[in-house]
Amino acid sequence: MRLRYWLLLLFFICMYANADDSTRILKIYHDSDYSNHKASAIAMKMGFMAALADVNFTVQGYQLELVEKDHRGNSNRSLLNMRQFLEDPDAIAVLGGLHSPPYIKYRNFINENGIILLIPWAAGGSITRYPDGENWVYRLSIDDTKAGFKLVEHARQDLHCESMHALLENTPWGKSNHKTLSAAAADNQMKVTWFNWNAQLSSARIIIRDIINSDADCVIFVGNALEGSHFVNAMASFPKSSRIPIVSHWGITGGDFLTSTKDALQQGVRVHFIQSCFSLRDYKQHPQARKAVESAKAIYPTLAEGIEVLPAPTGFVHSYDLGKLFVEAISNITLSADVKQNRAALRRALENIKTPVVGLIKTYQVPFSSWSQEHDDAHEALGLEDFCMAQYADDGGVTLLSEPKAGAK
User: Fold this and answer.
1) What CATH class does 12-143+282-385 carry?
2) Gene3D superfamilies attached here (predicted)?
3) Of 85, 230, 331, 335, which sits 20 to 30 A from 181 (CA to CA)?
4) Helices within 163-312 (DSSP H only)
5) Which of the residues in the chain have pLDDT under 70?
6) How far is CA 124 from CA 62, 72, 79, in A?
7) What is the C-alpha separation between 404 and 164, in angstroms, rounded?
8) Is the whole-model pTM more than 0.85?
9) CB-neighbour burial class of residue 19 (10 A; exposed 0-12, middle 13-18, buried 19+)
10) Phi/psi at 97 (nearest 5 deg)?
11) C-beta neighbour count of 192 within 10 angstroms
């Protein structure tokens, strides 16, 4: 009986150990706006999940899980998500969302507490530039220290715009773009109009009327989908002879912009926006892109209806490429039971990716390196050469207006 007891006890101990081993997980929190800009949040989730699928959601025996954390566009909710992350012994990194203000406001908190923040969308220039110690934030997205130069260049060279009028949201994101736009248009005294979040169509019409009457011949817009749709519809309310083109930051692509502006665009309102130099419309031409799309379709069968017209498509593209870099980095460390050690090791590994990583936008050769004030692009995986201008096609897909300088091969 005693032998049977010990054998039975040993059996249950082994079963428990095996169960414990099989359920080891690492979580990636997705701090994003799943309420007001759901299209961008879902596109980012899909792209990152497709990258994890390439390794069967497993690394070193750990199961990789993406956890939705809806901050609803509220910086304080984002902070709560980050505090919860710090208390979670299974949480290894945070995947950021569309909005820059939370990461600008809490940049010190993020870095002082050792939160690995991977940014596939938020473009605020200061997010990745933390000068007071170890930098824990890594971005693969548009960078506002460069975006304004592309917007101004397109307005001048392609739209022959001589009098640009900046229309900027009154947030830290809008203000960071104002600096870049002013530098880019140094010899052109660019007028500026500021607007607040939740601006309505009535006020948008007044603002657009005033810009048209100021003799501007194009608008440089920095804002998100909700307000952007009002300004585009406001432009459509004026006679065609009075309308001027809108050159936009890519924030408009993060929500339900196209549905809200379809009639205005069909009436000829010109809206061009910046994005990285890869379009899902071209995925069949690139082996890595075909692989990414097939992985995504296996997880999300509804994508079979046409990923070419996926809302907020660059959210998918950036998150997939960033997911590939994350997988490469975490595969190069030795994971332990100490989550703080794991996070620190992952931070170092992200700065030391030596093997080329094939993504959708390009093949990444040492995408990140050690950050310093002298080398302040060290945590930026993309550069100005990776940015293109685009527009919406009639079917809702995104079409590049120029040939990409880099792409998946």
Assistant:
1) alpha beta
2) 3.40.50.2300
3) 230
4) 172-184, 201-213, 225-236, 257-266, 287-299
5) 1-22, 187-188, 304-305, 403-409
6) 33, 18, 17
7) 26
8) yes
9) exposed
10) -125, -155
11) 14
